[in-house]
Design brief:
- This protein has about 450 residues and is an all-alpha fold.
- Among the domains are: about 200-270, no CATH class; about 285-345, no CATH class; about 360-415 and about 420-448, no CATH class.
- It has 23 helices and 2 strands.
- The chain is rod-shaped and about 170 Å long.
Length: about 450
C-alpha cells in the first residue's frame, strides 16, 4: 500500500507546467491609457476646485472647505488649494486650521514665502485679538508674539503684545518694551497714552501728566488722552478742596499732603501752588514756600487775581521769614528779606515798620535797623511807613523812640565840657516829644 502524500495539492500537474498558478497573465497598460486616467483625475480636481471657489463667493464656507478638501485629495501638491482653504477657515474663525494650511503653502511654494508670511501673521493677529476680547491674555500674547516674529517690521503686533503684558500684570517687562517702542517712534500718541495710564495706576502722576501733554501735542483731539487729562483735573480739584478743609480744621500737615496730590494731578494750576506756599509759610518752611509762590506767579497771567494773590503771599513769606531770622538774632538776613519784600511791594507800610524796628515795649526798639544801630535807616523806614498811612499812632510812637535814641546817643557822644552846647539835643527831644504826644501810647499814659 502506498503512503499518502504529506502535502497534497489541488493544482493539476499540467497547469503547474504552464505556470498558470495565479490565473492568466495580464498585459501592461499602454501610456495612452495612463494619460487618460490622469486627465480624468485632474479634471475632477478642477471641478471640485471650481465648486469651492463658487461657494466662497457665496459665503458658504463649510461647503467650500469640503470641496477644497476633495480637490486636495486628488492633487495634494497644489499650493493654491491649501491657500484658498486657509481663507475659508479664516472666515469661520478657525484660526488654527488656517495656520496649518498656510504653513503647508510655505512648504509647497517657497516662491510665495513673503506673501504667505504676511497672511500668516495676519491670521495670528486676528487670533490674538479674539483671545484678547475673551480675556485670555496669555494665549493672546503668544499669538501676537508669533506674529511679530514673522513680521518684525510691523509695530502693531509688538504694541498689542505690550497691552497683553499690562493685562497680565507683567509691569517691568511691559514698561521696558513700551519705552523701547517710544524710543523708536516718538510720534505715536497712543503709546504715550498707554504709558500715561500705567503711571496713573501706580500713582506717578507727574510722569502721567507729562505723557498726556506729549500725546495732546501730537494729536490735540486724542479722545483717550483728553479723557485721562480731565480725570486728573477732577482729582486735583477734589484734593484741593480737601486740603482747604483740613487747613480750616488746623491740620496743616494733612492739608499739605492733599495739596501735594493736587499739584501732581495738575502741575499747571497756579492756585494749587499758592495754597501750598501759604501752608509751607505757616509751617515755617520759608524756602519751599518762596519757591512755590514764585512758581504760582509764573503760571498766572500778569495782573490777574491769581498773580496778585501769589505776590501778596510771597511778600508775607519774606516778612515772616525776616521775623524768624530776627528771633534767631540773624538781623542782617532779616533786613535783606524785608528789602526783597519791599522791592516787590512798595506800598506796604508794615514792611517799612518791620525793617525799621519792631515795637516791643516802652522806649525799646530791639530789631533790624534799630538794633543794628542804623537809626537813620530806621527813621527813614518809619517816615516812609507814615507817609503810606498818615496818622498811624503806632508808627508815630516808633518815630518818637528813634528820635529819642538819636538824641541820647548824640548827647552821650559829646564830652562833658561841651554839654552847655545842647541845641542839637533839644531839637532831637523836641521832635521826639511832638511825635510821642501824637501817638496812641501817649494818650494811654495820659489817661492813666
Amino acid at each position: 500500500m502506498e503512503a499518502p502524500e504529506l502535502f497534497a495539492t489541488a493544482v493539476p500537474e499540467e497547469q503547474l507546467r504552464r505556470g498558470a498558478v495565479f490565473g492568466p497573465t495580464r498585459g501592461v497598460e499602454s501610456p495612452a491609457a495612463v494619460g487618460s486616467v490622469r486627465a480624468a483625475v485632474r479634471g475632477r480636481m478642477r471641478e471640485h476646485w471650481q465648486k469651492g471657489r463658487h461657494f466662497c463667493s457665496c459665503g458658504r464656507w463649510e461647503e467650500a472647505i469640503i470641496c477644497y478638501t476633495k480637490a486636495i485629495g486628488l492633487d495634494p501638491q497644489r499650493a493654491e488649494l491649501y491657500e484658498q482653504r486657509a481663507e475659508a477657515f479664516l472666515q469661520l474663525c478657525d484660526f488654527q486650521s488656517a495656520v496649518l494650511n498656510l504653513r503647508k503653502v510655505l512648504v509647497l511654494a517657497p516662491a510665495r514665502e513673503q506673501r504667505c508670511l504676511a497672511r500668516l501673521a495676519l491670521v495670528l493677529d486676528l487670533q490674538g485679538q479674539c483671545l484678547l476680547d475673551q480675556e485670555l491674555y496669555s494665549e493672546a500674547l503668544e499669538a501676537f508674539t508669533r506674529a511679530a516674529e514673522l513680521q518684525p517690521h510691523c509695530k502693531v503686533f509688538r504694541q498689542r503684545s505690550i497691552v497683553c503684558l499690562a493685562a497680565l500684570g507683567e509691569f517691568p517687562e511691559f514698561l521696558q518694551m513700551l519705552n523701547r517702542e517710544l524710543e523708536e517712534d516718538v510720534r505715536n500718541p497712543d503709546m504715550y497714552v498707554l504709558r500715561a495710564f500705567f503711571y496713573n495706576r501706580f500713582g506717578q502722576l507727574a510722569l502721567c501728566h507729562q505723557d498726556i501733554q506729549r500725546a495732546l501735542e501730537l494729536e490735540p483731539q486724542h479722545r483717550a488722552a483728553r479723557a485721562l487729562w480731565h480725570r486728573l483735573l477732577r482729582q486735583g480739584q477734589e484734593a484741593k478742596a480737601q486740603a482747604v478743609l483740613k487747613a480750616l480744621c488746623g491740620d496743616l500737615r494733612g492739608a499739605l499732603y492733599k495739596i501735594n496730590f493736587a499739584i501732581e494731578s495738575d502741575p499747571l494750576a497756579a492756585k494749587f501752588f499758592t495754597l501750598r506756599g501759604t501752608l509751607l509759610r505757616q509751617l515755617k518752611d520759608f524756602s519751599a514756600a518762596s519757591k512755590d509762590l514764585a512758581r504760582a506767579r509764573e503760571l498766572s497771567a500778569v495782573g490777574s487775581p491769581e498773580a496778585q494773590e501769589a505776590q501778596r503771599q510771597l511778600v508775607l513769606t519774606y516778612n515772616d521769614c525776616a521775623v524768624h531770622c530776627y528771633a534767631l538774632g540773624r538781623l542782617d538776613e532779616a533786613v535783606k528779606l524785608l528789602s526783597e519784600a519791599l522791592r516787590n511791594e512798595k506800598a506796604e507800610q508794615g514792611l517799612y515798620t518791620n525793617r525799621g524796628g519792631k515795637w516791643l515795649g516802652w522806649w525799646s526798639q530791639q530789631d533790624c535797623f534799630f538794633h543794628l544801630g542804623e537809626l537813620a535807616y530806621a527813621l527813614a523806614d518809619y517816615q516812609q511807613a507814615l507817609e503810606l498811612c498818615p496818622g498811624n499812632h503806632a508808627v508815630q510812637g516808633r518815630i518818637a523812640a528813634v528820635l529819642h535814641e538819636m538824641g541820647r546817643w548824640d548827647l552821650a557822644a559829646r564830652s562833658p565840657r561841651k554839654w552847655h552846647s545842647h541845641e542839637a539835643e533839644q531839637s532831637w527831644f523836641s521832635q521826639c516829644l511832638q511825635d510821642l504826644t501824637s501817638s496812641r501810647m501817649w494818650k494811654k499814659l495820659k489817661s492813666s
